[in-house]
Amino acid sequence: MTAAPTAPTLGPVETSVRKAQITLDELWSQTNVETRAYTGNIIALTVRKHLERVQEALAGLEGRYAGRQIIGVMDGTDDLMVHASLVSQRRGAFVERLTIDASTEQLQGAILPLLRPATVNHVWWGSDTKPEGLLMRELTDIADQVIADSLTLDIPPARHYALADLGWSRSASWREALAQVFDSPDAARQLPNVDHLTVRYAGGKDLPARLYAGFVADTLGWKNLENVEFKAARCGRENGDLCGVELSGDGVRFTLAAGEAETVRVESVWDDKKHVTEVNVPTMSLAEGLGRVMARPERGEMFERAWKLAKATL
Amino acid sequence: MTAKRGKKAAEPEKPSKPAPKGATPKKPVTKKVSAAATKGAVKEKAASQKVGVAQAAPKAKTPSKAAARPRKSTGKPGADGQNPFRTTMRRSRAPEPATMVIFGVTGDLSRRKLLPAIFGLWQDGLLGSAFNIVGVGRQEMTDEQFKDYAIKALQESKETDAIQPGSLEKFRELLYYEFGEFGGDEVYELVGKELDRAEEAHGGRKNALFYLSTPPSLFEPISNGLGRLGLSDQSEGWRRLVIEKPFGRDLESARELNAAIHDTWDESQVYRIDHYLGKETVQNLMAIRFGNAIFEPLWNRGYVDHVQITASEDLGLEGRAGYYEEAGIVRDMLQNHLMQLFALTAMEAPAAFDADAIRDEKTKVLRAVKPIPLGRVKEVAVRGQYGAGSMDGVKVPGYREEPDVKPDSRTATYVAVKLEIDNWRWQGVPFFLRTGKRLPKKVTEIAVVFKRAPLGIFPGGLERNVLAFRIQPDEGVSLKFSSKSPGQEMVLREVVMDFRYDAFGAQLESPYSRLLLDALIGDATLFPREDEVDHAWQIVSGILEAWDVRPSKGQTPDFPNYAAGTWGPEEAETLIGEGRRWRRL
């Protein structure tokens, strides 16, 4: 996969479903790349108003997750249009991108033949309309993973594909930070005293915070989120990210609060002693969040249990 | 070297109140050693020596502080001190709060590799919420001066990850410095106080990773000093010792070093770093061998003709004449890096991907190598020293013309050796290892060369299939096989199917960051164990004796015997034998 280190993106070139592979091969021939690695397909389904954001997220997604990106723009017409390009990546690599603008019915017939065979298929529902109909059914049939905003779209976890939620994925650093607080056995021993949780979230979107609360509650053996408070906050982080978490109870308090840059201040109090540390909680871009779930799906059971607790609060 | 030896038993003592930083202690902190504890420790060590494998670390005592106990029921998550959040994490193991103490922190290795690796781990949020670094050196410096030094090192090193805004300032706050003579007690007392201070600030136990980034001559004094002051004792937190190669300069000194270290440390506390094992593609060798069903059936004397392991360097001495004149290529590369690559290639499948299972298998195959006594050296090993030549179109001097090298130096800069393994899998399959300086290019590769097909039914000769693992650069795996050439005739030609690791599109992590994280977690899988190091020394002992110790026994080398920029001396071609040739890389 070597080529010039700053190779430009090649395309988009207008093509058709039948000629798409030939067009891609022609684009490949313009590069100095000798070998290609087919690491998977990602099928991103979206609508025009979200197209730019989806393209931007996919551009930041490295080829190691999916060597072929197929973007289906669902609010097109029956007059199907296909564009092919090779999107330049770091270190002189490229990923293949096919953008199809069509009606949902047309998309179904167009996407399936374009999938690179015998590899992993990720389906990303990058739209705020509820997925339904034949297209989604066909795609979930061939999907190894469905990535979606699961609480908004009410897509329950299912057995025949791995469900991944970007909000859940992007709060992974916060889950890791909380786990780090209790890597100390002394701190872990205080957990039975915790009976209250506050989650502060950035912007107006509290669904990732609810999933996060579901994770904490389930881990601590709580049956529901009755003892959880959600508070909107401002901390310089993106909408959907968290600003802080506090676990408290009889004589104990563990607070994680977003600080400068990507640091989070951790204050732990038990036995009237206060311990203060700082931990890095990197923010995750949409592309990084996508990369994370595609690299290795989260442990399904944990997410499913958190999802059920969170869903019950809506 | 004169320090008193004696295993410090795990008798807990009352945690002392931390003194203010910089205060002079009244007297050294010592620990009582109970007879029972000593007995236990001796028994444990004896068992370890007997079976030749590492024993489990002594169990850390449960903290005696009543205050640390929860007041509520004990059946709830966390009541047992286990972290219930960690079990659900993708990273199911993470370092507990700890202090990393780097001896020799102002040295080259620390500046170029260690500090950037630690910073990268910290910036990625992998080092936990309570982590400190204490630099220790002989050079007098304040904390502030050390912080400046470390930040500058991070800014200058090519190994440093992209620095996020504000990260350096935050990382700076984790750094502390102590100085003193490594032969005395004071510097270790100060280190002990740093551990007290970290515990006071962060809670948790006084876990510490001691990294000896110093010349080998200081390993023993530092190990002893830490032991004298009770800093190897694990009753208040785990304590681990990381040492850099060379682990001795021959079999005898390696055994002495191991014995000296074991006077203070249990083998399970010792982490010997060979940075080759931290490389992604070295780990990928195990992944490809044991994660796929198609290779293992071929991985034996029935199908493999021979194996070639190459680690070539294009560089010369780069100002390291002092070290290199003493060490030479056998100690610098063959005994450690190449021997590890050899063991990973030739070992049996381990029962599990864990430290002891893997290290047991590596040790077994090293033990099975046919000994190379003095009398066999000429038959199975070739040495070389480069003369003047040309590299990349530039004339370069010979080894003996390098600054600070003796004009009649007999130090070898090239070695090729044939290893034979006396076991069922590899009987009759030679492993050829070669490494040298000023070879045409920098490349490390393991090539498994298969036997020819038993019958040629096509015109032309039959070629051998080769499965090659490129460790560096252009990390990847390739398979060479024959295919029909397009055309009317049935003509076969060799083609190569190539997988390049950069297809993953990810920057490879520094081997040091992987190894440091493993040491902090307590995973010794990628660290050579005492018995591995011992066997590796045994394999090269005859070679060292022939070339270094008894040079007058008709073995005087005709140096220089290869020109810089070539693939080594002619004798290496004879070594590999008829019908085979070294890979042109």
From TrEMBL, chain A:
| Name of the protein in its database record | OpcA, an allosteric effector of glucose-6-phosphate dehydrogenase, cyanobacterial
Provide the species name: Deinococcus marmoris
InterPro entries xrefs: G6PDH_assembly_OpcA, OpcA_G6PD_C
Which Pfam families does this entry report, sorted A to Z? OpcA_G6PD_C (PF20171)
Residue ranges occupied by any Glucose-6-phosphate dehydrogenase assembly protein OpcA C-terminal domain in the UniProt entry: 162-307
UniProtKB/TrEMBL annotation, chain B:
* Catalysed reactions listed for this entry: D-glucose 6-phosphate + NADP(+) = 6-phospho-D-glucono-1,5-lactone + NADPH + H(+)
Q: Where is composition skewed (Low complexity) in this entry? A: 19-40, 54-67
The pathway noted for it is: Carbohydrate degradation; pentose phosphate pathway; D-ribulose 5-phosphate from D-glucose 6-phosphate (oxidative stage): step 1/3
Residue ranges of every copy of the Glucose-6-phosphate dehydrogenase C-terminal domain listed in the record: 286-582
Which residue numbers delimit the Glucose-6-phosphate dehydrogenase NAD-binding domain? 101-284
Lyase as UniProt keyword: no
State which Enzyme Commission number(s) the record gives: 1.1.1.49
Top EC category: oxidoreductase
In the record, biological process GO terms are:
glucose metabolic process; pentose-phosphate shunt, oxidative branch
Q: Spell out the catalytic residues.
A: 337
The record's section on Pfam families has:
G6PD_C (PF02781), G6PD_N (PF00479)
Family membership noted in the UniProt record: Belongs to the glucose-6-phosphate dehydrogenase family.
The family database entries (NCBIfam families) matched by this protein are listed as: zwf
**Which protein is depicted?**
Glucose-6-phosphate 1-dehydrogenase
- Identify the species of origin: Deinococcus marmoris
